Amino acid sequence: MRNRYLDVLRFLAIVRVVVYHVTGWATLTLVFPAMSVMFALAGSLMAASLTRSGPAAVGRRLRRLLPSLWVLAAVFVPAMLLSGMSVSPRVLLWLFPIADPPANDWGALALSVIWYLRDYLWFVLASPVAFWLFRRAPLPTVLAPYLLLVTIEAGIYPAPPVLREFGLYFGAWMLGFAHHAGMLRRLSGRVLYPVAIALAVGGGAWIVGHPGPRGYDLNDNHLGNALWSAAFILIVLGRAPSGVAWLGRSRLADRAVTVVNRRALTIYLWHMPFVVALTPLVDVVGWSHQDPVGLAIRVLLVFALVGLVTLAVGWVEDVAARRRPEVIPGGPSRPAVVPAQRPAGEQATVDVNAG
């Protein structure tokens, strides 16, 4: 049975990511550190899959992850090749992005969100070993990515970019492991709240002391991002409510949460190309980032365009998950076939669609 509270968190994270990329408001990264939350939720789901299926969960997770990327690549890779991108063996990274796939100038910006799939892919591949270590030494395994990041940011260990990403976001992934294991829920308030406050204060102080080119934007500050996000995750997962009954009382809200969760990857992959494509248009009509009406229109346009492409190709996520493809997921389920009462001795009929 799905945890609807986690679905609500994922819904909020996806919406926040899209709004941030349209508006550029750095404050949104502090109010809701969406990327770390998404990695934490993915880590929790990965731990659940490893518990059920063992290392075979890696293949299942990749099967659900890659087809939506291939659909995007089928559109944009030919367009980039036709507009000047050179052909090289690295183009194959669009099939399995263990490193950043090649892109031309406009494609690098429009497809910049691919870094999330690159990191996600590495985290999935590392999860069987990490899960084995976590079950034997939970706390050291959770702390290890954060310690790695500290050594990198302090200049002690000049690590390659992939290890920096492990230090930044694999800690959130491991907190997802801890959530699945019930560790966060079992923490008493006397432990959880002081730890969360200490992490938030430390991360906040580092962010204030080391502002980036966009001000206090978590995306420009690796260590501050990791600490602030860890505090946020401890609270939202460690003190998760037992249920979200209020969601079921609104059919519209319940359906919206379901649709966004079932199409999260499609929405994430396709929203940035529309943000980039709309930028010249809004410059022409004069919708600046300081114009609330213009910003609102831009947000609505991006969501509308993402909605259209999701209707067109979002069903690929159903196929990847081996579900019945739906244009708009979350519709009424088929009623169960209840056999009618039969007189004694009457032969039962067989439902050929059963099973």
Structure described in brief:
Helix content is 69%, strand content 0%.
Walkthrough of the structure:
The protein is an all-alpha fold. The chain contains 16 helices and no strands. The protein has helices at residues 4-23, 27-31, 34-53, 56-82, 105-110, 114-136, 138-153, 161-181, 183-186, 189-209, 222-238, 245-248, 251-262, 264-285, 292-313, 315-320. Helix 1 (4-23) packs parallel to helix 14 (264-285) and helix 8 runs parallel beside helix 11. The longest helix has 27 residues, at 56-82. The protein is globular and about 55 Å long. The protein starts with a helix and ends in a 35-residue tail after the last helix.
Strand percentage: under 5%
Q: Which bin fits the share of residues in helices? A: 55-70%
Question: Quick one: overall form?
Answer: globular
Q: What is the arithmetic mean of pLDDT?
A: 89
State the assembly state of the protein chains.
single chain
The biggest beta sheet reads: none
User: Over the alpha carbons, how many angstroms does the gyration radius reach?
Assistant: 22 Å
Query: Helix/strand/pairing class, anyone?
Result: mainly alpha
Q: Low-confidence stretches at least 5 residues in length (pLDDT < 50)?
A: 334-355
Helix/strand order, N-terminal first: HHHHHHHHHHHHHHHH
How many strand segments? 0
Number of helices: 16
The rounded distance between the terminal residues' Cα atoms is: 19 Å
Explain the layout of strands and helices.
Blueprint: H1 4-23, H2 27-31, H3 34-53, H4 56-82, H5 105-110, H6 114-136, H7 138-153, H8 161-181, H9 183-186, H10 189-209, H11 222-238, H12 245-248, H13 251-262, H14 264-285, H15 292-313, H16 315-320
